[in-house]
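Good morning,

Attaching, inline, the backbone tokens for the sequence recovery test we're adding to the shared suite. The designed sequence is right after.
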């Protein structure tokens, strides 16, 4: 006797590939292959990588076994089975196969997305860096863990969901900044060791797994901004030098390994987020000047090496995020203002007018969150903290077409000062952070 089985449609990173799930059910049919001792993440990755050759799979939770069904599978039917998931990539094809063998489908459809825990990092950490390498792996480096400043680094392999230690940086760094260069190497800049603010920089070679010092910055800094310019040079600006908040900026040339001073901002900025436009100009807004949280914004022109003031935000902000949305429009989200109020507000900056316009607010105030630009022009914000200083497990997505936010399902772990990045296959990857005074090594991905 059939009971109702719910068919869940899961959108991969709110765009891209569609993943479906049927709870407490299994597929029965010909042309299948069984893999043992596999995580659900590993099985899903294998199915996605098959580019449609694998239609669906059974995942047996109790013994961590997956059973793959190819596109050519025949005599497919669906049966109730406890502690088993049916996961698939093409709902219409699957439905057609069911319809060829049964006249009544024993399920209904609904829509849901989800976060899935994947392999834990080897070390709990927050204020670390995360970089997506050209081979699709994620390099996490540095940060702090229970009062210890870290130099170690590790690699996440999306195909297995597992972490592997790699070469450590030459010095511990927290609140540093990294960027992936055009040649695939990763540049780590500045940061704080627990006693000193750093001017040093080093390069990670993904082919050898080692870090090598490169030229020092002209100014020691942590909590600075960093952007890879269209010409391949690295642009850093602002931050704290160990004694003062700075408005200085400099350029790194990967060809020579040398840093060169460039034009300074109009004000010092600590934790200044930035977005780069298609014309190469860089927008920087808000941050802490050393005395106030500012609402000012300015544009850097790499051609001239100079800054130009542009329209000010409607709210002063620190600890906010900037994200390129659509049509050369930048979305600023959250942060804290000069009254100590944590913001739920958001604004849009138009590159054509230089004006900020208030748009729809988030459902909750956020500071120390992360924001990612999705391939469909939407922006997702993840975690952070709110007015009562507690870490958040919520996430929401901004739609430029409606100017509204949509709250999605909660993370499995509340977190602030974490990392978030978009993997090459479109999956959202979130790692580490703080949880109300504790540090976490947990990692989750969004389908």
């Amino acid at each position: 006797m059939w009971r109702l089985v719910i068919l869940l449609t899961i959108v991969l990173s709110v765009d891209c590939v569609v993943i479906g799930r049927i709870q407490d059910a299994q597929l029965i049919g010909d042309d299948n292959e069984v893999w043992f001792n596999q995580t659900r993440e590993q099985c899903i990755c294998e199915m996605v990588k098959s580019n449609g050759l694998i239609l669906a799979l059974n995942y047996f939770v109790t013994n961590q076994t997956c059973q793959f069904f190819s596109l050519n599978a025949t005599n497919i039917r669906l049966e109730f089975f406890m502690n088993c998931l049916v996961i698939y990539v093409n709902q219409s094809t699957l439905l057609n196969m069911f319809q060829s063998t049964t006249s009544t489908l024993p399920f209904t459809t609904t829509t849901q997305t989800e976060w899935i825990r994947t392999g834990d990092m080897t070390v709990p950490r927050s204020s670390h860096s995360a970089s997506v390498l050209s081979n699709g792996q994620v390099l996490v480096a540095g940060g702090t863990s229970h009062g210890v400043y870290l130099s170690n680094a590790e690699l996440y392999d999306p195909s297995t969901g597992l972490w592997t230690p790699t070469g450590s940086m030459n010095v511990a760094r927290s609140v540093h900044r990294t960027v992936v260069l055009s040649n695939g190497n990763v540049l780590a800049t500045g940061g704080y060791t627990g006693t000193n603010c750093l001017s040093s920089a080093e390069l990670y070679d993904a082919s050898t797994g080692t870090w090598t010092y490169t030229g020092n910055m002209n100014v020691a800094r942590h909590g600075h901004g960093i952007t890879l310019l269209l010409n391949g040079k690295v642009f850093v600006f602002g931050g704290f030098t160990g004694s003062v908040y700075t408005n200085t900026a400099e350029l790194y040339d990967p060809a020579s390994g040398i840093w060169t001073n460039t034009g300074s901002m109009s004000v010092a900025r600590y934790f200044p987020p930035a977005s780069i436009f298609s014309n190469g100009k860089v927008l920087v807004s808000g941050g802490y000047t050393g005395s106030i949280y500012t609402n000012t914004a300015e544009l850097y022109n790499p051609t001239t090496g100079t800054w130009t003031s542009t329209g000010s935000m409607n709210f002063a902000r620190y600890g906010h995020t900037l994200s390129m949305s659509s049509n050369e429009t930048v979305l600023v989200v959250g942060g804290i203002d000069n009254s100590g109020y944590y913001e739920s507000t958001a604004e849009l900056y138009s590159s054509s007018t230089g004006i900020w316009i208030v748009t729809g607010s988030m459902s909750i105030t956020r500071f120390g969150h992360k924001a990612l630009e999705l391939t469909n022009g939407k922006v997702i914000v993840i975690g952070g903290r709110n007015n009562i200083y507690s870490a958040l497990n919520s996430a929401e997505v901004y739609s430029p077409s409606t100017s509204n936010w949509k709250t999605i399902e909660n993370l499995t772990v509340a977190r602030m000062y974490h990392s978030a990045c978009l993997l090459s296959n479109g999956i959202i990857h979130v790692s580490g952070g703080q949880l109300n005074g504790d540090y976490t090594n947990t990692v989750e991905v969004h389908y």
